[in-house]
DNA sequence: CGGGATCCGTTGGGATACTG
DNA sequence: CAGTATCCCAACGGATCCCG
């Protein structure tokens, strides 16, 4: 995708879809936590913080479906389930980290723009 | 929290928020189109394709609020409104392009993982 | 031409209760 | 412990009508 190249519409859609997938409320937080190593369900729940059990389940299922995370069940009592990033999941962290750094570096500018917009439209 | 891997929780949240902002259904598509230069409302509507007038309006308003886009009104009859990327908007394209290239390069792997997951759970 | 206002179906996501 | 099932609300997003 060179600069000046007429980027195909389907590619833009594809990017947008991926972005929507990992751009939901919890996926990125979960992936980030698993980036430090495998975790059990409730460990992950505590590590992420503020996520409901329902959303953690659905988030993990979707991440598993898309091949970012593996789910390993140990048939013990009580049961134990480990979640771990796949190779694809770890590779995803690279471009995401790029966006992360940009976001951290620029969130002040965004907040500032937002504040300016809000005060100007309040008139 | 591991030493040597100092991503604070607030930073993760911040990234997640930015990702959700541009990870909605249309923002990225709009930004991509404006990346080729300023466009009028209906030009943009046609260029993006499939977006409703309401969503284009709200998407542009939010992008404007966050400082990614400028809105210029020409007080003519009929009215003319130009939308253009700001410097911040153009800078955003850099990390997004990184993610874009990753998405395009790996969407086959995602589709494959998804297909495998779906057929295995169908049983 | 570039919206604003409204209605409405769909989806996201939290709270709670129950289960193997 | 690691879920599933259910209810419920709020936000997203499309369709339509109207207006300066």
Provide structural commentary.
Two copies of one chain form a homodimer. The first copy, chain A, has 123 residues and is mainly alpha-helical. Chain A has five helices and three strands. Chain A has helices at residues 9-22, 27-34, 41-48, 53-65, 87-121, and strands spanning 39-40, 69-74, 80-85. Chain A has a three-stranded antiparallel β-sheet with strand order 1-3-2. The interface between A and B is large, with 50 and 51 residues. Chain B binds a DNA duplex (20 and 20 nucleotides) through helix 4.
Helix/strand layout:
Two copies of one chain form a homodimer.
Chain A lengths: L8 H14 L4 H8 L4 E2 H8 L4 H13 L3 E6 L5 E6 L1 H35 L2
Antiparallel strand pairs in A: 1-3, 2-3
Chain B binds a DNA duplex (20 and 20 nucleotides) through helix 4.
Decide which structural class fits the backbone of chain A.
mainly alpha
Q: Using CB atoms under 8 Å apart, which protein chain pair has the greatest interface?
A: A-B, 50 and 51 residues
Strand portion of chain A, in percent? Answer: 5-15%
Count helical runs of chain A: 5
The major pleated sheet of chain A works out as: 3 strands, antiparallel
Ranges of chain A with pLDDT <50 over ≥5 residues?
none
Taking all residues together, what is the mean pLDDT of chain A?
91
User: What Rg of chain A, in angstroms, do the CA atoms define?
Assistant: 18 Å
- Based on the structure, what is the oligomeric state of the protein chains? homodimer
Helix content estimate of chain A: 55-70%
Total beta strand runs of chain A: 3
Distance between the termini of chain A: 44 Å
Shape, per Cα inertia axes of chain A? globular
Give me the side-by-side strand order of the main sheet of chain A: 1-3-2
Q: Element order, helices and strands of chain A?
A: HHEHHEEH
